[in-house]
Design a protein that fits this description.
Number of strands: 13
Helix content: 40-55%
Shape: elongated
Order of helices and strands: EHEHEHEEHHEHEHEHHEHHEHEHEHEHHH
Radius of gyration: 22 Å
Largest sheet: 7 strands, parallel
Strand order of the largest sheet: 3-2-1-4-5-6-7
Distance between the termini: 12 Å
Strand content: 15-25%
């Protein structure tokens, strides 16, 4: 079979979507069989990204359209034309952005429904786009994948999905680099750049200033830690960094507390791994997720984790994590203080978390996706 992989939303920046796409491609490379793949990319990304290379995969850069009419032309005529010339049997998109008129049987992945449950983090144009694209993709698809069973159940409950439509959860993998100690020189350089004393503990967050990631709870919980513990701990939060949002978060705090909170912005992949190697504890009070990959990456790195008590993180974080209601600041303060107070418990949870995360592989993700696409090709003859 010959499949297409629509990676036109792939970007050089280290985002969760980039991680998911590159990881899935790595998993496809590692599968046995004779299936062939044609991967569609934006111009310039073939050499700019660490794309896995294998004999049965071809990367094709699609000319980028900067205007709305141009993008519509690419989706309605350009991309289908490429697929016809490539002899594609089934089209696959790892996002809800299926082409508006897929020329072949098609399948796509629902990453999350955050745009429905937490719309305050999106512009009106983004929300309109998500609604229209999701409905269009659901109308044109022959199968649907979701990242988790939680999202799959919501899809089947919230929308009128035909019973005969194949629908499966593919889960996620974890980059193997998180399981290994980072190079000492990278870790040391990052520690110096962020101003983190070697003698202090490091509490790691995620999500930057993205409102959905709810770092407000984490910052407030950190500020309420017992003074002795707080004065030997630093809070580091990688991810998108919006200066005004950061200022609003830090303004109510004392100078002493502000000096121990570090928003890093997006980090290169090697520095993200190094930061996990420096950290002692991971806390993630997110309001909503489609999967929650940062939790798995932290567990893979051997970090005890405190996660939001929401269904998707219960599914992904497993039994080794500690859970707290996402907006109850005192509960997060207590959980963080308790974790730091018991080194033996930290070590046990770290070992259990690493074992849990090791079950999430990109090869298993790719295998589930291919199984779903084969159902489509079989049903369509």
């Amino acid at each position: 079979m010959r499949y297409s992989f629509n990676a036109l939303l792939l970007v050089p920046r280290s985002t969760g979507m980039r991680t998911q796409m590159l990881g899935t491609l790595q998993g496809l490379r590692d599968l046995d069989g004779d299936d062939e793949w044609v991967v569609f990319l934006r111009p310039g990304l073939r050499d700019a990204l660490p794309l896995p290379q294998w004999d049965r995969c071809k990367y094709v850069e699609i000319p980028e359209a900067r205007t709305l009419p141009g993008r519509l032309w690419v989706e309605l005529y350009g991309l289908p034309a490429y697929e016809r010339r490539a002899g594609i049997d089934v089209s696959y998109s790892p996002t809800i952005y299926l082409p508006l008129a897929p020329p072949r049987p098609a399948a796509f992945t629902v990453v999350d429904f955050c745009w429905l449950r937490a719309p305050q983090g999106y512009s009106r144009a983004q929300l309109l786009s998500y609604h229209l694209r999701f409905q269009s993709s659901l109308l044109n698809t022959c199968a649907v994948a979701t990242l988790t069973e939680t999202v799959r159940e919501e899809l089947l409950t919230r929308f009128e999905v035909p019973r005969q439509l194949p629908c499966a959860a593919t889960l996620s993998g974890v980059d193997p680099s998180f399981f290994r100690p980072p190079p000492p020189e990278t870790a040391q350089a990052l520690r110096q750049r962020l101003g983190l004393p070697a003698s202090d503990r490091l509490l790691l967050g995620s999500g930057g200033t993205n409102p959905r990631k709810n770092v407000t709870t984490l910052v407030r919980a950190f500020a309420r830690l017992p003074r002795a513990l707080r004065r030997q701990t630093h809070l580091v939060i990688p991810g998108p960094r919006e200066p005004r949002a950061e200022q609003r978060l830090l303004a109510p705090l004392s100078d002493e507390v502000r000096s121990r909170i570090h928003f890093t912005g997006f980090l290169p992949a090697n520095e993200a791994v190094a930061l996990h190697g420096l950290a002692d504890l991971f806390a993630f009070p997110t309001l909503d997720e489609g999967l929650g990959l940062p939790a798995l990456e932290a567990q893979a790195a051997g970090l005890p984790t405190i996660l939001s008590d929401i269904p998707v993180l219960r599914e992904v974080g497993g039994p080794s994590a500690v859970y707290a209601p996402p907006t109850e600041v005192d509960a997060w303060t207590a959980a963080i203080a308790s974790a730091f107070d018991d080194d033996a418990q930290l070590a046990r949870r770290a070992d259990n978390g690493r074992r849990w995360a090791s079950a999430f592989t990109w090869k298993s993700v790719a295998d589930r996706i291919v199984s779903l696409l084969r159902q489509v090709s079989t049903a369509r003859g």
